[in-house]
Amino acid sequence: MKKRVLLVEDEIRIREIIADYFIQNDWEVHEADNGKDALIWFDSLNPDLIILDIMMPKLNGFEVCRQVRSCSGVPIILLTAKSGDDDKIQGFELGADDYVTKPFSPKVLVARANALMKRIEGGHLPEGQMLSFGSAVLNTMAHRLDVNQIEVELTPKEYEVLRLLIYNKGIVISRDTILRRVWGIEFDGDSRVVDTHIKKLRSKLGNESRHIRTVIGTGYKFEEEA
């Protein structure tokens, strides 16, 4: 079955070019040219990936990202003409998984989308386990976290960060290592995105956040007995 991408871009020529590349790479493409229509498509389509321009009419990409993240962990790639770190950080804080600055190569965008999907589908860590810590259980087959027997919605990157820490329990993992393993070597942001995701993870884990220890000046470590 083809993967479905919801492509949200108000510049029709850019949207057509991106769509053509994704179709050539065996994706099913659905398009929207504004934020409000994007949310309507999202509700009915259940896409595997959203590619989302930030500067759009009706609702900007940040607001669309925020609303999608309130109910779904679907992977999101943001597109923007701005290259400043502040915009990137805002996007990641809202739950975006990747960030591409215009102008960009559509071929590279497709490659980054495919790489993101492979990482989310469990490309480099073992799957099919129930990982328990305290009152929390991470089901790596279903990509599901339960805390106190209640499901907690994780974004794809939050899931990958938590899974990486658990599989390396007792080992200090640097921020740079987390960036390479979770975001990939092509990621051009800085390590603050790791701190942002750890903060969100701790908030969602509640009392079980005690298992994630900050190692000052280095990174993070997962401790089974916190």
**Gyration radius, to the nearest Å?**
18 Å
Largest sheet strand order: 2-1-3-4-5
Give the termini separation. Answer: 43 Å
Number of helices, counting only DSSP H or I runs of 4 residues or more: 8
The CATH topology name of the largest domain reads Rossmann fold
What is the CATH architecture assignment of the largest domain? 3-Layer(aba) Sandwich
Could you tell me the strand content as a percent range? 15-25%
Mean pLDDT, nearest integer? Answer: 85
Largest sheet, strands/sense/barrel: 5 strands, parallel
Number of domains: 2
The total beta strand count reads 12
Low-confidence stretches: 123-127
Structural class: alpha/beta
Helix content: 40-55%
Order of helices and strands: EHEHEHEHEHEEEEHEHHEE
Modified residues (4-aspartylphosphate): 53
Keywords: DNA-binding, Phosphoprotein, Transcription, Transcription regulation, Two-component regulatory system
GO molecular function, one term: phosphorelay response regulator activity
InterPro entries: CheY-like_superfamily, OmpR/PhoB-type_DNA-bd, Sig_transdc_resp-reg_C-effctor, Sig_transdc_resp-reg_receiver, WalR-like, WH-like_DNA-bd_sf
Notes on the structure:
- With 226 residues, the protein is α/β, with parallel strands linked by helices.
- The protein folds into two domains: 3-122, Rossmann fold, CATH 3.40.50; 130-222, Arc Repressor Mutant, subunit A (Orthogonal Bundle), CATH 1.10.10.10.
- Helices cover 41% and strands 23% of the residues.
- The chain is built from eight helices and twelve strands.
- It has helices at residues 12-24, 35-45, 61-69, 85-93, 106-120, 156-167, 175-183, 192-205; strands spanning 3-8, 27-32, 49-53, 76-80, 98-101, 130-133, 136-139, 144-147, 150-152, 173-174, 212-215, 219-222.
- The protein has a five-stranded parallel beta sheet, sandwiched between helices. A four-stranded antiparallel beta sheet has the order 6-7-8-9, covered by helices on one side. Strands 10-12-11 form a three-stranded antiparallel beta sheet.
- Helix 1 (12-24) crosses helix 5 and helix 2 runs parallel beside helix 3.
- Residues 123-127 have low confidence and may be disordered.
